[in-house]
Design brief:
With about 475 residues, the protein is mainly alpha-helical. Among the domains are: about 70 residues, no CATH class; about 70 residues, Orthogonal Bundle (Topoisomerase I, Chain A, domain 4); about 100 residues. The chain contains 16 helices and 10 strands. It is an enzyme of class 2 (transferase). Keywords: DNA-directed DNA polymerase, Nucleotidyltransferase, Transferase. Its EC number is 2.7.7.7.
Length: about 475
């Protein structure tokens, strides 16, 4: 297959490699001109996908050059060329230029436009009851007029159109963006919200993005409510991947003002616990430590309910994911900040929804594997019948009616065990393909990568096999399955 690259792309690459100014340093005009050319090429159809990625990376590099050059003048402690007077002058000139542009746009009757947000070097202009193409036309007129009223090289450029859009707070907005008037499919563009932040978990980011996409495409809140109720039901019933509920936040041991370990951030708590078990587990400065939130005793603080994900994923683990915390303290507050603007009350939605029941395998503790019940919830946690799902007393696996049907019990246990064994064999084959060799069948899968979705699924199936093995052993069908081989 032959790829044809336009000649101007090749020329652009040449300009990046060599200085065309004939001097030892690239002049300012060349940096800005090259930045504009690269940015425009990022949104054009290119034969090679990787070429578009390269162009995007290079235009970001040029943007950083311009930003850092100014930033050095304001960095008095660590800057290489500090000059506070120059930095203050730049800020004041930029502020005055922005205020003049905002006043000019708001005072222009022909455009019927209103600047609803301005920050440093950009403006968000509201154009009511206009199409995307009309917005581009007016935007270009505004850009030309504002550029003409400012001295060279101050230039205002028409960048994109958001339709629709949520403008939350300063530097926090999201919407469907159009880079040119002929663009048919918009791009989901988010800045500063949970979908692009790294200090939240995947469940929050994925739920928010899908909710926003649903709202943008359907222009209504009813389908968003239906989607959220379905997602909350999946979380409460345990039909989710633990990978989406792992937090990973930076830890800077030695910089916290408190001396009490119980007052440290959750990630630091998990790090100190690991260091007690192994002093060599001390994290590097600003290293991100993963943790999950599990159920604790009534009235427990957050720092008392955080554990390492591997502790929750252990086959004989007695921890349970705190699904209520993730819904009420993470998902709902993040989405309420967005959909509260259209009058939605997500807390009320969650309060009114019926609570689904968990699968018995997810709720049942493996008492045979751990006879030391150190917490009180081991004694009052309800269990359900393996066949019909009815509540049973004590540690019984079947209700009185189903326990009389031995054939149905044997069929159900063998069927579920066979299905789980096939799943874990399939997952082991994937791990064997990734790691290589046949050592997996002899010593088991030793990989514990928290970034691998197969690892979470493998541990989930292992827990199910252990629970099924307990039921089968108590029913006298066959010995306990040695799932640790897998």
């Amino acid at each position: 297959m032959v790829y044809f690259i336009p000649a101007r792309y090749l020329c652009l690459t040449y300009i990046l490699c060599y200085c065309t100014g004939g001097r030892g340093y690239t002049i300012e005009d060349e940096v800005f001109a090259l930045f504009d050319d690269l940015r425009s090429l990022c949104f054009e159809p290119v034969s090679l996908f990787c070429l578009g990625i390269i162009f995007n990376a290079r235009q970001l590099a040029l943007k950083l050059i311009a930003n850092v050059t100014y930033g050095y003048t304001a960095a008095g402690f660590s800057g290489r060329m500090p000059c506070a007077e120059l930095a203050d002058s730049i800020v004041q000139c930029g502020r005055r230029t922005l205020e003049n542009a905002i006043s000019f746009v708001n005072a222009h009757d022909q455009w019927n436009a209103k600047v609803i947000y301005g920050d440093t070097d950009s403006m968000f202009v509201l154009l009511k009851e206009r199409t995307v193409k009309e917005a581009f036309e007016i935007g270009r007129e505004i850009a030309s007029a504002v550029t003409a009223m400012n001295p060279h090289p101050v230039t205002l450029k028409m960048e994109k159109v958001y339709h629709p859009c949520f403008l939350l707070t300063k530097k926090r907005y999201v919407g469907y963006s159009y880079e040119n008037p002929d663009q048919v499919k918009p791009v989901f563009d988010a800045k500063g919200i949970e979908t692009v932040r790294r200090d939240t978990c995947g469940a929050v980011a994925k739920t928010m993005e899908q909710s926003l996409r649903t709202f943008f495409e359907d222009k209504g809140i009813n389908k968003v409510k239906t989607y959220l109720l379905r997602q909350w039901a999946r979380i409460l019933s345990g039909r989710v991947s633990l990978q989406d509920f792992v937090f990973a936040k930076e830890v800077r041991l030695g910089t916290y003002s408190t001396r009490s370990s119980s007052s440290l951030p959750p990630a630091a708590i998990v790090a100190t616990k690991a260091m007690r078990a192994d002093p060599r587990a001390e994290p590097r400065y600003a290293e991100r430590i993963p943790y999950v939130v599990v159920h604790g005793e009534p009235g427990s603080r957050l720092v008392d309910m955080v554990v390492d994900p591997l502790d929750l994923l252990a086959t004989d683990s007695q921890f349970r994911l705190n699904d209520t915390y993730y819904i009420t303290k993470q998902i709902i507050p993040a989405l309420q900040r967005v959909f509260g603007l259209v009058g939605a009350d997500l807390s009320q939605w969650f309060s009114d929804m019926p609570r689904p029941g968990q699968d018995f395998i997810a709720k049942r503790h493996s008492y045979a594997l751990n006879s030391h019940r150190t917490r009180i919830d081991y004694y009052y946690l309800s269990t359900h019948c393996f066949l019909c799902g009815e509540l049973v007393q004590d540690s019984a696996h079947f209700c009185g009616k189903c326990s009389k049907n031995e054939a149905a019990i044997a069929t159900a246990i063998v069927g579920r065990t066979s299905k789980s064994e096939k799943e874990i064999q399939h997952l082991a084959a994937i791990c064997r393909h990734c790691g290589g060799g046949d050592w997996l069948l002899e010593s088991g899968v030793k990989c514990t990568s928290l970034a691998c979705s197969v690892f979470y699924e493998r541990r989930k199936v292992q827990k199910e096999l252990h629970a099924l093995s307990t039921v089968a052993t108590d029913a006298g069908l066959y010995p306990r399955c040695m799932v640790e081989w897998f």
